[in-house]
Model the fold of this input.
Amino acid sequence: MSTQGKSKGGTVLNPLISRRSFLKWSAIAGGSLALAGCSLNGGADEGGKPVANLTGASAGKELVIPTSCIHNCGGRCFLKAHVRDGIITHLSTDDDRTDSFEVPQVRACQRGRSQLKRLYHPDRLKYPMKRVGERGEGKFERISWDEALDTIALKMKEIKARYGNEAFYYVYATGTLGTTLYNCYAEFPNYGGPLQRLLNLFGGYLNYYGNYSAAQYYYVVPMMFGSMGGNSPKDLRHARLIVLWGHNPVETKLAGAGGAWYLQQAKKAGAKIIVIDPRYSDTVGSLADEWIPIRPGTDMALVSAIAYVLIEEGLYDQEFLNRYTVGFDEEHMPPGYPPQECYKNYILGKQDGQPKTPEWAEPITRIPANRIRQLAREMARIKPMTILQGWGMQRRAYGEQIVRGIPVLAAMTGNGGKPGSGPGLDMASPPVPMGVYPTGNNPVKATISFFTFTDAIIRGTEMGPQDGVVGVERLSSNIKFIWNYAGNALFNQHANIKRTHEILRDTSKVEFIVVHDLFMTPSARYADILLPDTHHFERNDITTSATAHIAGSSYAIFMNKVIDPPYECRNMLDICTELARRLGLEKEFTEGKNEEDWLREIVNTAKQKLPDFPDYETFKKMGIFKLSPDKEGSGIGFEDFYRDPENHPLGTPSGKIQIFDPRMYDKGNPKEIPAVPKYIEEWESPWSQEAQKYPLQAIGHHYKHRVHSTFDNVSWLEEAAPQVAFLNPVDAGARGIKDGDMVRIFNDRGEIIMPCRVTPRIMPGVIDIPEGGWFTPDAGGTDRRGCINTITSHRVNPLAFGNAQNTNQVQVEKA
Amino acid sequence: MEKELLIEWHQGRELVYSFLARIYQEGPARDLLAALAGEDILAELATRSQNEDLITGCRLMQAELEARRRDLEAYRQELQGDYNRLFVGPGHLEAPPWESVYRSKEHLLFGEETLAVREFYRSFGLESKKKNQEPDDHLGLEMEFMAWLCREAAASIQSGGDAGHFLAGQERFLKEHLEQWVPALTADIQRAARTDFFRGLALFTRGWLASDTVEVEMVLEERPKG
Done:
């Protein structure tokens, strides 16, 4: 037979594959046998006519399915997925319901609207994997789900038998936060979470308290006020003066029903807005009447100097202080404690000989003394006033102090308990009635600070109350097994990358690490078993505005499963059910219920609490249910206490706001844990030894690119807010650095090379590396992305055992 | 043109497309490597082709296969590592093998192109078995679709038809889809691969599609009109 033929037109057709070699090619092509098991279906019909059931309406018709966003931004915003033939073509938001002050639209921000860039990202994890190289090296091999689950179950049993349940740790994570079912944040059992439930049934796990966002705030506010609280964002419109102290909602909480929108309404209503911040943030640019740049870490010097002016000029409200606080002056100290230790004496310098005058504060804060005086007078005279605290300034060496300091100014100026008159804390969202997936009780009582887990890996059995351990006198085991679900705090978001790497890579320390996530994050590199998670559009769940903590109106969202999970991605309920089966806990774990059964129960609970809550089917279909505004409460924090403090005391030792705290006094460490809020020079500062080599302060603000490290791999957001280090022209000029140059940022802990933006929007003496960039080391170990934890310190706060990740001295040079 | 020749041409092409479908979908399987290393089919193909990319690609693959013939298992693992880094993960994919990632403005999976490819399959009565679980426009699936079109064309001629429908489908699919993105993908593979096998496969793929497009056009041109 010819292998070559001539066409009529004379062209030569010379098949590249000769019939002689068909057999050989069949061996590698596998013929139709190899293909039988794979991908294309149907079609064997003659003539290639379309298969009848594929030509129906499903191809063209658009469905609109409600769901939401779900990260740790403080918002919970409504999203609508537009679906064609099982594929989401685009997203829209809460744009077709009434939009009023009382019931605003819950419109998503640029991050929420970028969800498709995460959902359909080509880099998503697709298959279960096991580690094949050294831990942390990033070498993995695909395995079956059965092998993955069998391995995990076996290791859980082994490690439990050898070390007990205290050896298990569910590391802090917030990638899927505050839902009733798939919540990954282990600290709050009222959020739900299948893994928490499984681990509790398995005998428990080492707990943690506190969080990377606001460890100091969450530790100190309950000591000072007896519980968390604050005025609702809705209440801001009643304020005449709003002081945003290190608070930047226009970049961090800019979604529809969040803080930024309510501040806009307050501004329209005539409030004066002053922002105190080392950065000229978007909040300054769009809302502020005045910007007061302050040297990072010196906010307490400003608080003290304002208090001094209020005292000096007789501008403080003695009656208010007497009624609501304890420890301001000698006449109002708790019994049994030395009266001279009162707050007023500290301010006037009666103990240390240093009156905290504006002139004293000026060189510390870099704010002119006369500006401090003006600010104090404005705060005293413009009523009502709300000071809102941000959290960046408490993620510092002595961050507990500023949390306690600002409420003192609120009280001195007679603010708190009335419309527009805030207690000096953050905003607080009104509650929403809702049920929760039951996580059960953790039989393990031992609890550590979230920030000390790396210590508990290397020296857990030495750790007790002196290290912030509660529940036990001493940990019975080092951490040997880590679950990391939907989080990047195992490595990337934890301080001192180099140290964390050394600890995690050693498989004799933590013996087994499971990571369940959407992407190969820097933390996921340390997995022994790596599991591909579902995106939240690929499972059903429920969330509420109350878990958002910055929403001004009350609503609940049914987060519909919009599409099927791709590849071999599986959700946590599914995984835990499989593990429960292997651990002999299936019956207890499932109680015979699936995802829908649990969610129905959760909605039923909501309906019992609030009869006009919609039923399950209606709620699922409508997606968002907004409570009628009259169900939201007054929005005034600690309202009963301020109205009638005698009959509604706070849950503090005195029943009042603790300006002086006897529990702190009793710690016997007045330099680091003063009983009244004081300015304490930081352990690493422009005045410390480090500043000789490392003269600049490095801070990491919360960038509009990301929610912490979530969204770092989203190109739209990189375009809108590129990962750059911000440096003032004064510091840049002195170093020959021009806008757009690559710079080397370093200290003894590590080194980053990244682009520099030279801008007066950051004050001199400071370099700002937006937190959350994914650590990307080059061959020499230098980070090339701008992960601030390359240069941060692991040292804990003295009282809260929290993170001081904004206290860093560095040097910067042209790379 | 001779009927037998056309059948042979279609069947041979089906085998090449099936090979490409398999390697891009499954990666370097043991038996596939053993067969490639044991036979001289790549070398033979190189001698029969005029396309520089195809010739170079075949030779690169063949040379490395021969050099590593004695430690084929270690070689397979190395290739699997390369395959994972390029196409599977975990982590950043150096050459994400989906059409919509290359062609859509957003560079995402499940884009407009995925729907267009789905529609193309549908117009021939086909549907991906993993529809909506895996994108329809994975290179391996597109190659499998071409193989299927070749097989159907051969069968059509065998039973007295003229295969025009399938041949036209091949031309359209090559032009509207494969040609639109595979050159960019193979450039990424060439840049990022750490083995000559995958660098060679990239050239092979690009060269094969280029020369096949020419042949398909030629055969279509020669078909009696009407």
Remarks:
- Chain A has 25 helices and 29 strands.
- The domain at 689-814 of chain A is CATH 2.40.40.20 (Barwin-like endoglucanases).
- Confidence is low (pLDDT under 50) at residues 1-9, 31-39, 42-58 of chain A.
